[in-house]
């Protein structure tokens, strides 16, 4: 497996570009309207609160990545915390699936904005068809190698971060910085807290950086730096855009156009040219988001395979395990793109991610906090915040769409049951039991 990963093939700038690429692709374009639907007129502040919760979560990943930078990222953290157990393998698969779900979310968003740009009402068979087309394109880019991904991520990140920030500033200036997104849609504290599940989803792209740890230059230092820089950039961009959308449209129109809120807000604020520029930016942002996410999740699945935590079959395909996991990732993302709408995809991703996140913090708090020098109260605060948000989101979704709650619960139960059966049939060797309890002298030795 080591030959599949090129040390020092991703610079700090590449890592930041990948992180912002995944975050901005999903966060501001796919989720602004959905967050507004739950949070009401307070939706811009939901991004700030989501960033605070994410900051507590990121602490765990940074401390672990500084000690043991790994191409398996999340899988490595879970295996060190729990050993090669059902909990570790199941939670790692939840993370992988939440990343694949994110790809389908962003692919459908790409299709929605493209159709709006062509003057068509998004809907019908064209949305999933275009979304699957983007996923196939992202596969071809990823199959061409790391350098292509890193370079393309950098170019697209600069274009979209600068462009979307410029959209926010221009729309605010044109709208006179008057917040129009008010109305009778008062959702209360429960709705606001529930909306944080989607706001957290808008920031979870920082884990893309964690999953590429072994390939980043000076990883013990740069993984943490890249995570902090990416989250900081996204907070600024999200706030700018949220206030710009709120200054251009009343709340009911933001919610009605929740799948393409930025495009809807651009025309009254910036005219027809502004509308087309915003659509172009959305297409760049979503395309790069899918490319960066597929890059990370295929490597995570390859590392989990290498750690004997998930089964693997090449189905007659040539190439390395990483080549095969790239295909699996693309196929699953394509299926989700066809069968689920944006709102349900986002909800499913939020459920999977929050449960996995809680398990990571708990495992590190129980077994590794002293070894990596982590503050226990920060880890427990991260667990508490995640649990509150997950609880509020579950209640709200149970009231509005109980089907997706049941799908999430059944899906998670199936993942853990599958892993339990796999590990029972394929018990790990004694040498694989590493809970990180001080058995490893040097962090560098533990990264493989």
TrEMBL record:
Membrane-related topology note: Multi-pass membrane protein
Biased composition (Basic and acidic residues): 432-448
Positions of region (Disordered): 427-448
Keywords, sorted A to Z: Cell membrane, Membrane, Transmembrane, Transmembrane helix
A GO term, aspect molecular function: transmembrane transporter activity
InterPro entries for the chain: AA/rel_permease1, APC_superfamily
Gene3D superfamilies: Amino acid/polyamine transporter I (1.20.1740.10)
GO CC annotations, alphabetized: plasma membrane
Transmembrane segments: 12-36, 42-62, 82-102, 122-143, 155-175, 187-206, 226-245, 273-302, 323-340, 346-365, 377-398, 404-423
Subcellular location: Cell membrane
Major localization listed first in the record, in broad terms: membrane
Name of the protein in question: Amino acid transporter
Organism, scientific name: Tranquillimonas rosea
């Amino acid at each position: 497996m080591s030959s599949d990963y090129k040390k020092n093939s991703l610079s700090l700038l590449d890592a930041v570009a990948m992180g912002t690429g995944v975050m901005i692709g999903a966060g501001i374009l796919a989720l602004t309207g959905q967050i507004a639907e739950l949070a009401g007129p307070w939706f811009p502040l939901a991004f700030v609160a989501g960033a605070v919760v994410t900051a507590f979560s990121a602490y765990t990943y940074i401390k672990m990545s500084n000690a043991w930078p790994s191409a398996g990222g999340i899988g490595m953290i879970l295996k060190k915390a729990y050993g090669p157990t059902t909990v570790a393998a199941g939670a790692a698969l939840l993370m992988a699936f939440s990343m694949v779900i994110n790809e389908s979310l962003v692919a459908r968003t790409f299709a929605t904005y493209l159709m709006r740009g062509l003057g068509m009402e998004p809907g019908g068979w064209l949305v999933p068809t275009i979304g699957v087309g983007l996923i196939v394109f992202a596969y071809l880019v990823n199959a061409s190698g790391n350098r292509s991904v890193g370079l393309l991520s950098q170019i697209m990140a600069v274009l979209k971060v600068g462009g979307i920030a410029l959209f926010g500033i221009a729309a605010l200036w044109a709208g006179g910085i008057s917040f129009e997104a008010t109305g009778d849609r008062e959702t209360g504290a429960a709705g606001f807290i529930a909306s944080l599940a989607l706001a957290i989803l808008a920031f979870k792209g920082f884990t893309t950086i964690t999953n590429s740890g072994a390939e980043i230059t000076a990883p013990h230092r740069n993984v943490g730096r890249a995570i902090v820089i990416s989250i900081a950039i996204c907070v600024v961009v999200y706030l700018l855009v949220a206030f710009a959308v709120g200054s251009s449209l009343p709340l009911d129109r933001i919610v009605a156009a929740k799948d393409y809120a930025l495009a809807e807000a651009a025309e009254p604020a910036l005219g027809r040219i502004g509308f087309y520029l915003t659509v172009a930016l959305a297409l760049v942002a979503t395309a790069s988001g899918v490319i960066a996410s597929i890059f990370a999740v295929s490597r995570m699945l390859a590392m989990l395979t290498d750690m004997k935590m998930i089964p693997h079959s090449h189905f007659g395909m040539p190439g390395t395990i990483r080549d095969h996991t790239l295909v699996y990732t693309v196929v699953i993302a394509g299926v989700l793109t066809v069968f689920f709408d944006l709102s349900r995809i986002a909800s499913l991703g939020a459920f999977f991610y929050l449960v996995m996140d809680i398990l990571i913090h708990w495992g590190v708090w129980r077994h590794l906090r002293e070894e990596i020098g982590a503050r226990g109260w920060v880890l427990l605060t991260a667990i508490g915040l995640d649990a509150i948000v997950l609880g509020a989101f579950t209640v709200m979704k149970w009231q509005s769409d109980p089907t997706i709650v049941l799908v999430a619960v059944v899906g998670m139960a199936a993942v853990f049951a599958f892993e339990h059966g796999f590990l029972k049939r394929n018990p790990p060797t004694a040498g694989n039991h590493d809970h990180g309890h001080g058995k490893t002298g040097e962090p560098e030795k533990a990264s493989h």
